From TrEMBL:
This is Uncharacterized protein. It comes from the Eukaryota. It comes from Anguilla anguilla (European freshwater eel).
Length: 33
């Protein structure tokens, strides 16, 4: 059970990281233009 929970947590962390990076990229591109 704990191992599957760890995998779920890792998956959520990955998704949040990707979202944050995408938002930051959008922000930087807006600032550059």
């Amino acid at each position: 059970m704990s191992s599957s929970l760890d995998v779920q947590l890792l998956f959520y962390v990955d998704v949040i990281t990707i979202l944050v990076i995408d938002t930051a990229r959008l922000h930087f591109s807006h600032v550059r233009c």
